[in-house]
Design brief:
With 530 residues, the chain is an alpha/beta fold. It contains 13 helices and 18 strands. Helix 5 runs parallel beside helix 7.
Length: 530
Amino acid sequence: MTAWWRDAVGYEVYVRSFADADGDGVGDLPGIVARLDHLADLGVDIVWVTPFYPSPMLDHGYDVADYTDVAAELGSLADADALVAGAHDRGMRLLVDLVPNHSSSEHPWFRSARRGRDDPYRDYYVWRDPAPDGGPPNNWRSHFGGPAWTLDETSGQYWLHLFLPEQPDLNWANPAVHDEFEAILRFWLERGADGFRIDVAHSLVKHPDLPDDPLAVVSDEYEAGVTADDFEALEHRYDLDQPGVVDVYRRWRGIADEFGAVLIGEVYILEAGGLDRYLTAEGLHLAFWFAPLHRVWDPAALRAVLREGTDLAQRVDGGVGWVQGSHDVSRAVARYGGGQVGRERALAFGVLLSLLPGTPFLYQGEELGVDDPVIRPEDAQDPIAARNGAYDKGRDVARTPMPWAPGPGLGFTSAPRAWLPFGDRRPEDTVAVQRADPASTLSAHRRLLAARRPLLPLPRDVAWLTDDGGVVAYRRGDVVVAANLGDDPEDVDLGAPGASVRFGTDRAREGSPAGPRVRLAPREAVILAS
């Protein structure tokens, strides 16, 4: 069967912030359906929608209370079916976000498990007796700060939660948990879903002895993540990336292949060598390569991280999802310097990602070049900020509502107030204004994806054309992609005689011959082909 995700373009929809159809200030499934034409017009092939299950929404849907239904505030199962059908009608595929590491504490499984040690669902979760001093069983920490254990006063045991206490970790040593999730996969695939994005896909299995994690060795190779400082202070040797996790995906792979579906893992490992075992012929089809999200803007560092990810993609036959943003990190424009410089850098880097072997993904609003807004502490919604006060690590800046049109509600909602403030969005940030402007970031992304499509498929091999300087360039077959990530103009020989510019961030260059040497302005990118 043809791997339809190969060379496709993906797009992440953060459901609460994409489009609000019923005027309650919260994005919903009917809102996504109403805006699918925007994605089709942009050139998207795969739509990944963040969790829309029933949930207390303490982690905005990643605390699931029912894996086979839709939260009432977000729609209904009929709306989910309409979303799948609407995507398919436009030639796009729809991915469901699966959350298998933990459930909500309001899930019937956990509510039953808390009734006592003898409950049939007790072993669906990870429970342990206290340490000899009465404290938590080990030193593991939550991603959101504090111990990864909470004491159940009734039974005298602690439950494990690598996230909020209200997100108890499931016990993947229990075969019944495997059976439950295989049924969940079939439920959504039989409704027409085309696959799954798997949340924290490296975290499901824990070391059976639950030993203490050692202290981390401090490194400045990567920028700090968005997890709490005490979580980052540990080397996660026993709570993450355990050997048995791949066995889960071997079973899921058989189900996915039966339906021609794709499994994409959020495998948050920043060294490419750690991803290989997830991307075997019996494992995940794709895993996101997150290392670029944690690099400072430096041509040498970015060149190195792209080469490392490309080497991985070549080893695993293209099983890499390329990203420069997500709902968990500050916007690329902000990380790359902010303002116009940040927008130009993000677009240039996106051009480099667009034709590497694998599947590039856009995060909603990335096509508009939106920057981080200012979120006041009193408006924070993200648990890491609102609950633990780590406002500098809060992810709300990446989750503000999509700006569709100027005016009250920015075309996102008719409500007087959205669930999260819009920030300081300007009319020129909106889809409506940018669609009418041929010089806009949105127009550039539309041109990029339109120029990319007829160049595919390309040979698997990638030849890197520059080893230093500001210009990062590579060749695949007779296609050359180059971007000047530096702050000075550069002349570079790209070895493309007879080629013409198929796409340029400077659109005036499109259609012109490349010439023996190409001069690239700072933050300018081109795609050349003969």
